[in-house]
Amino acid sequence: METKKKGFPTAFWVCACTEIFERLAYYLGRSLILIFVTASVATGGLGLSDTVAANMQSNLTAFSYLLPLFGAVIVDKYIGARYTTPVGMFIAAAGYFTGGIAKSSAGVYAMIFLVSLGLALFKNGAIIGRVITDKSQMDPAFSMRYTLVNVGAFIGTFLVGILYKDVFAKDGVLGFAPCFKMAALMMVLGGLWYIFVCWRFLGDLGKLPFKKTLTEEEKAAEAKKKEETGTKQPLTTIEKKRIGAIFVASLFSIVFWIFWYLGYMPVYFYWAENMDWVVAGYQVPSTWFDAANSLFCVILGPVTAELWKKLAARPQGDMSLFRKTGLGIAIIGVGYLFYAAIDIMRGGEKASVLWLIVFAFLLTMGEMFFSPLGHSFISKYSPSRYLAVMMSVWGFATFIAAKSYGPVYGLLFGGKIEFKVACIGVAVVSFAAALIMIALDKKLSALVD
After folding, report:
1. What is the total count of domains within the chain?
2. I need a surface site. Which of 26, 348, 371, 445 has the fewest CB within 10 A?
3. How far apart are CA 245 and CA 375, in angstroms?
């Protein structure tokens, strides 16, 4: 399948649009957990503590990145990703439906398990990594894919704030159950879209495990080795170096995602008490902060995609992933300095919730310099036989971050340290990590050249 010079192939667009269904469902369900679990039983919730709710949301985030590591083995060695992807969406749909009928924490944990299991088989990103065959188009392509991902995320997080408390609420009971069932419906529709639309444009792509579908570069290298030795060769030196580079990038992604997820927590807790959430007489739903992040991703996706295209066209080429990662972490640090500035300037009074728009922009800018490019980097340099596994190593790093940010939040923002001091501390660590990443850029980039 060849990539047109003037744009991405149709297979890219239809597969990337699948992400809209998946992320709409995911963020609709994920955003609702904190509210559903802590709302009183009389209003349709479970009446449990903030800590329980935070742990449940953390587990959904974490295990939706851990289980794909096991799903990766399946699509790398046994079953084509085009078949596992819609099956995974249907399993996740069953999970969200389970959330819609949950009457206890056990029901929520069942939802978390089924959704995570479904996402373990959802390998659309790896498929896109093979749809795009021109490496110079990888970063722009994955930036555009990230835009479509966040179209779904924006719709989910924006609508949930209105749906559960206005549209689906009845006789004092909030509309949690219909919202979870809507998430289930989105996953069913997404699975059908994949079967009846994506398969049509994928040709033979994804029918076989990735181990059996080498790139042209890998076929040429393996043929040369077979000609020289007469046997199939293990990983080459350059392949081992590239795998090492993926692990190093994943290690730094842990730092990035801990601080990124950490930035959300004050919105629901510290700023919930120390900001005025009423704008023009309307009580702004807290889930709209998530929506602001997604909206900025949609806006910045095409901008950064064009930026990577222009940088790649330079004689010296594009910036490396390692330098972009350093800049992304540094931008997150600037966001925490802004948090500290808000806390200082409010002088004990409640600050306007509108200030969070600026923080959401900074959070998103750091995210766009980093998150979409991880999958692009892996698609470029991972050996095909380990493509899905390497994608999942990246996801496993996010799992570690997701399981870590809760305890880190308790340590830094649990009340023992002043909020502004904790924010400045996070910013300092962010800047230090960024400087290390940029300083090591040449050595790390040499691993993939």
Report:
1. 1
2. 348
3. 13
Q: What are phi and psi of 59, to 5 degrees?
A: -70, -40
Q: What is the pTM of this model?
A: 0.78
**CA dihedral of 100, 105, 109, 114, whole degrees rounded to 10:** -20
Closest of 184, 19, 180 to residue 85, by C-alpha: 19
Q: Is residue 2 part of a domain?
A: no
CATH number of the domain at 344, please. Answer: 1.20.1250.20
Nearest to 207 by CA among 312, 276, 123: 123
Q: What is the DSSP string of 159-209?
A: HHHHIIIIIS-BTTB--HHHHHHHHHHHHHHHHHHIIIIIHHHHTTTTSS-
Contact predicate 98/111, CB 8 Å = yes
Q: Is residue 77 part of a domain?
A: yes
> In whole angstroms, how far apart are CA 122 and each of 9, 137, 448?
21, 23, 27
- Mean pLDDT, range 195-211, rounded to an integer: 91
Any bridge partners for residue 360, and if so which?
A: none
- How confident is the model over 307-351, as pLDDT tens digits? 888 887 888 777 887 888 889 999 999 999 999 999 999 998 999
Give the Cα separation of 222 and 385 in Å (integer).
Answer: 12
Residues 6 or more apart whose CB falls under 8 angstroms from that of 414 comprise none
**Amino acid letter for position 47:** G
> 218 lies in a domain?
yes
pLDDT class of 229 with cuts at 50, 70, 90: low
DSSP line for 284-332: --THHHHHHHHHHHHHHHHHHHHHHHHHHTSTT-PPPHHHHHHHHHHHH
For 130, the domain range is 10-445
Using CB atoms within 10 A of its CB, is residue 262 exposed (0-12), middle (13-18) or buried (19+)? Answer: buried
Q: Is beta strand 351-352 parallel, antiparallel or unpaired with respect to 278-279?
A: unpaired
Q: State the amino acid at position 158 in one-letter form.
A: F
Query: Which helix (DSSP H) or strand (DSSP E) does residue 278 occupy?
Result: strand 278-279
Q: Which two tokens stand for residue 261?
A: 């997820």
- pLDDT tens track for 14-59: 999 999 999 999 999 988 898 899 889 999 999 998 778 878 888 8
Q: Examine residue 17 and state whether it is found in any structural domain, yes or no.
A: yes
Q: What's the rounded Cα separation, in Å, for the pair 335 and 427?
A: 8
Q: Which residue has the tokens 């007469």?
A: 230
